[in-house]
Amino acid sequence: MLNLSETDKLICILDPIDLKPIVEKIKPKSNKGPTGYNPEAILRAFLVQQIEKIPTRADLVSKIDRSPYLRYVCGFSTTGRVPSEATFSRYYSKLSETDGLELLMNNLLDQSIELNLLETETMAIDASKLEAYERAKSRSKIDKENSFTPDWGTKFDSHKNQITWFGWKIHAAVETKSELPIALTLTPANHSDKTQAIPLVEKVNDFLAERDLIKPKYWTMDSGYDTTDIYEHILFEQDSQAIIPINKRNAKQPPAGFYDFKGTPVCSGGHKMYYWGHYKGVNKFRCPHVCGKVDCIHGTKWCSDSNYGQVTKTRPKENPRYISTPHRDSRTWRKIYNKRTSVERTFPRLKEHLNLENLTVMGAKKVKTHLLLSSISLIAARIAAKKIKLQNQVLAA
Asked: What is the pTM (predicted TM-score) of this model?
């Protein structure tokens, strides 16, 4: 078995990360003047800050300066000077102006695919709050048209308590087996969660299409995403199924023809029809009297001459919001929906273990960079763990 030191673990996490394409985007354009610091070492230091949960850039400089092993891991000289806080800030600003980190994240996801870490059949989408580093402003002084500045947001937690904060919202599409983020967006906190569902779906499907991989079959989200346009986009544009609970809002009763808000048809006797499974995008329901679920005073002859009883079929295209395959009231539907909790576990990993919640930068671009550095660290750590597991299996054989 491989027993790794803390230094070895950091090296294993950073090892699969190819930073050369980003270095080309942020390195000085001129070769004149004194030799500067290696941009790749600075980039590694940014990742080390997230992995080691180092609070501030000043703390990062101090820790690297005092720690030979961190100098070695990052790639700085073990005896020379380390970059100043101003140097790190300058490179961070450059990094925030490029798409280098998004390309790097995709590169690591490619490695995850090669290691069979991802199964993209089911994706989960959700949003999470992120408090801004800058001082909160009154609502009247915020430019609502500017998506590059933070705003006030409010939501209910799992205990139905209302939470209010000044800052941002992180929106993520997570693969439910690996619990790794595949696509991310960032908005001011006042943006509704549902506005980012379709952009995330498209980003994930574009990523998979570029690699000739199969699109997700199911997209699971909480009831905050229960809007017709999301169902229709996922069904008609992506040929997939949205698994979202109905938000009853102010509705007193289900639409005509349905027994409940789960899309179950009502029989001619006024009873809830019995779900009999789905096949090729069609749900089948049978007479509840024949199936022994109710004792109908009309018997079976009321609605059908067959001993099999009345059969009703529903298709999502008839009403994408209420009808899904599998049927909402089925065990299969609930099993798929329960996978949504994967995204709820991903956010705490990023916040509590990979420094995401410790925000010390301002402006949407730099906050997005902070988010990507944490996400890249998470994916790289999962790749490292998988490789170590495979090596241990070889050693044990």
From this structure: 0.91
